[in-house]
Specification:
Radius of gyration: 26 Å
CATH class of the largest domain: Alpha Beta
Number of helices: 14
Number of strands: 19
Bound molecules: cytidine-5'-monophosphate
Shape: elongated
Strand order of the largest sheet: 12-11-8-13-16-17-18-19
Largest sheet: 8 strands, mixed
Number of domains: 2
Structural class: alpha/beta
Helix content: 25-40%
Length: 397
Amino acid sequence: MSSLSNKRIILGVTGGIAAYKSAEIIRRLQDQGAEVRVVMTAAAEEFIRPLTMQALSGNPVHSQLLDSEAEAGMGHIELARWADLLLIAPASADFIANMVHGRADSLLSAIHLATPAIVAVAPAMNQAMWAHAASVANISMLQERGVRIIGPDEGIQACGDVGPGRMQQPDAIVHNLGSLFQTGRLAGKKLVITAGPTREALDPVRYISNHSSGKMGYALAEAAIEAGANVSLISGPVAIAPPERCQFTAVESAQQMLNASLEAAADADIFIAAAAVADYRASSVAEQKIKKQGEQISISLEKNPDIVASVAQQTDCFVVGFAAETQDVESYARDKLARKNLHAIIANDVSRGDVGFNAEDNEVSWIDADSTKVFSKRSKAQLARDILEHMVNHHKL
Ligand code: C5P
């Protein structure tokens, strides 16, 4: 499974005969599920045409630092922030020296300074240049700063010399990049996650709902994306922005959430129901605003469909539910696990103020037919990663 799935990679191309191999690197990165944007130095454009790189990457090639049109679209700071990985391949001796000195005289060098992403460099140069004390010192300086150096290979060089300095082959570079990310456990899997509350209309201006913030479901979606999954997030109304890199469906009512869930889960591998679905909806929704009446009014409610149970019944997904309880947490959760025919259920005690509903942290138990695993209190983001890791390992998904 690829750990490059869903990753955003800037491929920086500098001037060298190996630049023609960068076209192949784009393809290999895409094969692993990565999105690639290409940044070329002026020298690189002498060796390979930007149009080739644009056509292969499916994105415009960036090359100018001081280009008002480019800065108005995706400027150097946006590009730097966009990336999970900056791969410079080939990296010429000159560009490596430029990096060592922290220069910002080209778009690529400015991105190198501005990016929080992992930086990897695949050097390519003549063997004598590679062996020079200045290059040796430059490489060791980059390594000290955490830059990953990939290669170079030994062999016959374009100039006829033999020795170390050839850029590694595209396959090998991409293979080496895989180890830079610890994730990738869910690459190739489709996950559907429900999150947030549902809103059940009473009339055109009023509804029944609950206090679910959506934080746990959104954290699970983020963690699954990070782990390389193809994620569909189906969410009721919440105050947080949807993660990038997912299929996002905004819904209001339980019925809408059910329809979206069944459709998305039909070809999914895993379904996680983190939504706080309203148990009941109005038996009929008034067409006009309900007028103030006497001291009391009654509204007739009827039961909503059980989304997670329907998905468990109608699809082949591995299905995980949540159980928010205020007492006898494990026994109620086990009962729900069986009743809804789930593979696992994540139980939490919502009687505590510091975890669960609306809180930043959570403490839960993962419960399946034959085991219980307690996850002590931690941030919802970390918990989401740990839950997915346990799910994949324990259930061999
Ligand atoms: O029955 P209860 O609401 O306690 O079950 C909680 C679990 O069931 C959660 O995973 C929730 O997302 C899911 N659920 C659902 N559809 C409902 C009610 C709950 O998917 N109508």
